[in-house]
């Protein structure tokens, strides 16, 4: 007997976290620890219920307040560049916590995660989203992350989830010796920029084109 499966709504059913990880691998993400970290975080729990069917698509999704949860491939790519050749990410600052998704992924790769957000209701949402996971190494902070987080500096890793016109000086200053900072830079045309601090010198490397919401100053 043939069992006919009825597919609904034009969306491919059975999208899963495991499939998303497979897809990232096919797209060229090689770092197993990064893939594992992404595979541990149910992205579905960070988006509104109405978007749950898209949670494991490799796309950005709206999280309100004109902000988006980043595209998994871009999260993976940034983490891979930060992680390459290192044992872990160490003390990590995330600028732009949004819904808390990337902070959850970071918790599996970093010793400590300080995630900063400038929109209060989003920070509250990140806190609610992260609570069930009980990560002992993630702290959220309501602040303008373009100023870094002086009280917790220096950082081995800084990851910025919003695009800056140029690298904020405060972030460079708060990078530990041997530390790495990654951020999208540009206006309409943005690229990923990796900054490595070595012996007082900041080495910059540019990677692929990306599209992020802008890094804004102040809090709201
Ligand atoms: N990493 C997030 C993606 C959030 S989108 C996630 O996983 O959901 C980028 C976020 O950066 C937005 O929430 C935006 O409010 C925030 N942002 C922009 N400029 C900022 C700044 N100067 N300080 C802190 N957060 C900022």
TrEMBL record:
Annotated EC: 2.1.1.77
Gene3D superfamilies, per database record: Vaccinia Virus protein VP39
Record: active site: 70
UniProt entry keywords in alphabetical sequence: Cytoplasm, Methyltransferase, S-adenosyl-L-methionine, Transferase
Main localization category: cytoplasm
Subcellular location: Cytoplasm
Enzyme class, spelled out: transferase
Gene Ontology annotations for the cellular component aspect, listed alphabetically: cytoplasm
Superkingdom field: Bacteria
Reaction(s) catalysed (UniProt annotation): [protein]-L-isoaspartate + S-adenosyl-L-methionine = [protein]-L-isoaspartate alpha-methyl ester + S-adenosyl-L-homocysteine
Gene Ontology molecular function, alphabetical: protein-L-isoaspartate (D-aspartate) O-methyltransferase activity
CDD domains named in the record: AdoMet_MTases (cd02440)
GO biological process, one term: protein repair
Recorded family membership: Belongs to the methyltransferase superfamily. L-isoaspartyl/D-aspartyl protein methyltransferase family.
UniProt-listed NCBIfam families: pimt, PRK00312.1
The protein's role, per its UniProt record: Catalyzes the methyl esterification of L-isoaspartyl residues in peptides and proteins that result from spontaneous decomposition of normal L-aspartyl and L-asparaginyl residues. It plays a role in the repair and/or degradation of damaged proteins.
Descriptive protein name: Protein-L-isoaspartate O-methyltransferase
Gene name per UniProt: pcm
């Amino acid at each position: 007997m043939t069992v006919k499966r009825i597919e609904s709504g034009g969306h491919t059913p059975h999208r899963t976290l495991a499939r998303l990880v497979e897809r990232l691998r096919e797209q060229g993400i090689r770092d197993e620890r990064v893939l594992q970290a992404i595979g541990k975080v149910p992205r579905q729990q960070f988006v509104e219920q109405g978007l749950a069917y898209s949670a494991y698509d490799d796309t950005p999704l709206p999280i309100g307040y004109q902000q988006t949860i980043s595209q998994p491939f871009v999260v993976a790519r940034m983490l891979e560049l930060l992680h390459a050749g290192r044992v872990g990410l160490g003390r990590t600052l995330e600028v732009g916590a949004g819904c808390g998704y990337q902070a959850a992924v970071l918790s599996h790769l970093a010793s400590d995660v300080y995630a900063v957000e400038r929109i209060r209701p989003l920070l509250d949402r990140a806190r609610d989203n992260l609570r069930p996971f009980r990560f002992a190494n993630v702290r959220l902070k309501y602040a303008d992350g373009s100023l870094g987080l002086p009280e917790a500096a220096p950082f081995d890793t800084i990851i910025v989830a919003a695009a800056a016109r140029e690298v904020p000086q405060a972030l460079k200053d708060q990078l530990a010796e041997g530390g790495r900072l990654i951020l999208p830079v540009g206006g309409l045309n943005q690229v990923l920029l990796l900054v490595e601090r070595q012996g007082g010198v900041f080495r910059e490397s540019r990677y692929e084109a990306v599209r992020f919401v802008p890094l804004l100053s102040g809090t709201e």
